[in-house]
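Predict the assembly for these three chains.
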Amino acid sequence: MKRQRYFGQIALVLAAALFALPFIPLVLASFSFRWHWPDIFPSMWMWEARGTTPFPVGWDYLFSPVSGLGPAFLNTVGIGLATALLATLIALPAARVLARYNFPGKEAVEFFLLVPVIVPQIAVGIGMLMLFIRLGITRSYVGIVLAHLVPTVPYAVRILTSSFQNLDIAYEEQARTLGADRISVLRFIVLPLVMPGLLTALFFGFLISSNVFLLTFLISGGRIETLPTLLFQFIESGAPLDSTTAGLVLIVSIPGLVFLLISDLFARDGRSIGRTPVTSVTIPQGSGGPE
Amino acid sequence: MSTVRAAFLMSLALVFAACQNTSEDAAVAVDAFRRDFLAGELSWDDVLARAADEGEVEFFHWGGSEALNAWMESSARPAIEAFDISLNLRRSDTGDVVNLILADDASGRGLGRGTVDLVWINGENFRTLRDRGLLFGSFASLLPNARYFFLDPDDPRSSVNLFDFGTPTDGAEMPWAAFQFIFRIDTARISPEEAPVSFVELEDWMREHPGRFTYVAPPHYIGTTFVQTLMYEMNPDGTSFEPFLTDPADADPVDLARLMEPAFAWLRRVEPFVLGGSGQDGRPGQPIYPATASALQSRFVSGEVDFDMEFGVYDVDRDIRSGLYPQTVQNIIFPETGMITDKSFLAIPSNAPNPAAALVAVNALSSPESHLSKLVEIGYAPGLDVPLLDAAMQERFADAAPDLRGVPASDLAAREVPNVNAGLVDIIDAVWLEYIAERSSRAFVDIVEESWRSAVE
Amino acid sequence: MNRRSGNTRAILLGLAPAVLTLLLLFVGPLLLALVQSFGHAPMFGLQEFPTVRFYRTVLGSRRFQAALWYTLYYALVPTILSTVAGTALAVAASVRMRGSRFLTFFIRLPLVVPYLVGAALVVALFSNGGLIARLLYLLGMIEATGDFPRILFSAGGWGIMLVYLFKQVPFVFIVVLSVLAGMGPEYREAARTLGAGPWRAFRHVVLPRIMPGIVTSSLLVFAFNFQSYEIPYLLGASYPGTLPVEALRRYQLPNLQRRPEAMAYVMVITAFSGVVLFLYLRAYRRWERSRGSL
């Protein structure tokens, strides 16, 4: 047992290092001005170069209006919030039904509500592009939010279904028999109990939306930039340790980082790892990592 | 139930009709504006007034250069917004912009209802729009700043402004910047003396230094230009670019294949010696052809390959100042047999939603001041013709030109050759994809013939 | 729980928003792509429905065949590797110990960032002018960038697969770990006290219980890899592209008459994902049944 624990610890430390260390060179790169082969460290930092270049570089470039970072950030947040809210609202009634009732064809419905997670986004995306061109909603926020519903609604349904399953229906019935009307039952019994699941669904919807690349890329037609589409362009044209790309990568990682920190904070159950409400409820049903 | 459905359908139809109506009206107004402007019946003040009404302009441009993006913000924006037009900059690959315009048109977004007002363009992309009748019209000579450009068809100096890859521009696009195709080396790695000056020498160099050279893959324009330059040097008739200026529709595909074959034989022959190649004759290995100019540039900067290629003789100076290149990078004359020089343009599509604002924007970007700041800040050689400026301005342009980093201006000018005919670009790309990228075993002449047929039809 | 009759209305109303949304936004686009792949595209002046001409063009091309094999290869190798590594890591981490919460934070980090972040990291580290090549150069193990193995932009595809591993080892890890956490250490300890070695305990006690987690996660990983676009586009060889990359290339051809070829590509991708999903689930069911009969 002891030996196993020892090996486990080593494996875990190694893995953590493997996944976290690659971010360090990016932090260095984001502050560099010159970092050419074969230097292990930047040969000139961004603050040393300030004023000598005709236009801003590194973080100065990213935070100048030129980089397009500001609009991309606002777009990502706006689209993410709208998607999360809409997906949760759409999923809520379905999740309640799936958790409460048995009915013929239930398995088929459950399957149908999960399939979009597995079916190729390229297929949905290209078909959707044609559909949206006909509807005249390509290159619009409406179009992008609608597109983002495809990967988010299935997750929201899963999360909320398991949340409703945990909710004992007896509470509701008891309240009902005690004379509470529907609204009060909803407000004082159901809502507080479903709240964690609801928040999780919202969070997760936001995270997925803020990470989606292909659907945004196809539907936005280059007109509405989000953080992932901006990062795509930067990687496409940037050198390996390019300062602006590195800076943008760090910024794009922020929503996920915040998500992770919050989910860990909410996990009061410090006893077992990996059992934080968010990760244990949601990610098992997730795709190859939230897309 | 049926009444509900009928009511629903009816309201839908009403909404649809209403939408149709308003957009019909807009289309009629745009059409009238276009007709009157192109007929010369509108004063510039009329255009300015309508432009301010439209209030915005959608400017699509290739956004792969941080320097250009910075200049767009710092100089293009104030120049255009001075006319009460807000500038919406959209960064996009030019091919994608053309697709967007085509898609808009195909889905019925015609006159005044498109997405793109203004696009930075040239070559086959311009030709595609022109062939499909998707250009606003012959506006160039009607702009106040047209006086800084040679546009008189009878003046031989105008040809570079009136022909774009051999396609007549008909004034449907305004020259914006001039570029010469050029190679760079890092003198910390190879000295200018040992650098090859022709493709024949380059092949020898590659055999001595396997894996230290590669070129951008067509259909990226840098890759296509590389192949064009090679075709000029390898032309079996020794007539350089001349036969390639003909519109392929008027050419014989078998003869075209004969003219192109030595160049493609060269490409196949050197394949084992490009980046990732096997290093042994006859076995290509896994050659790597970067998909974009910046991908090649990053391989050059990171020391993987010893040559970089770009359009723009001042780029080296700019990229050293921005920290992208080490200070030891410089231009070289390659190949001595001819370095393709062309202009790129600003064009307005026929379905531009804000045509007047687009015209005002083009005019603002055609001023000497605008071209001067573009030259100074990002090293784009002017699209206007300096001899047409007043003496003081001419001097300012001469003083402002950035360092050419290793090559004298006279040497560059002596090696200027034109681009191929735009119709040939798709053929070169298709042949390259099949003959080089896919390593097809079909006869070269068959590949050319098939590409020729699908391009000409 | 079973309140069937009288609730039909509630059930239908409850399901309606989600089902209708996905019908419109998910099934609709797929159907549109399907009919277009068979030649129905009046928008581009094409009205040959039904024709299999586009499928014949696509399936017969060398480009497609190469793309198919490479897509499978890029999808399968990381699926196997991340399943094995993720499971092993989860088993290692399931033993309670100090600091594991802190450590798993870093392992979970890749899960919540876009795949593109993984791509940027792989480019920074593994390109021929990247940081690892520079370290090797410093150590005198390579003399030039060309000596460093070609991990990116080559048909070998290790650049693509490294990004997948970066995201998917943590994914399998977290799924399996949550299953393990659910069952608690008692099982294994019980097995051990009954005299089973660590490997036997794992095989006969732990593995059967975490199998559903392993199956689900590896299936999702494979399905994702098979259809991924941006990573093979950014880090793959110029030829051949993967199926999704080739599909979008077809879609972007200026010749609109050839657009149904793109639709044929996406339908092939969809059909293939469906078949793999089906076979995998069937194999899993069989495995489960065989276990049940033991």
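Chain B has two domains: 41-178+343-400, 190-305+421-456. Chain B touches chain A through 36 residues (CB under 8 Å).
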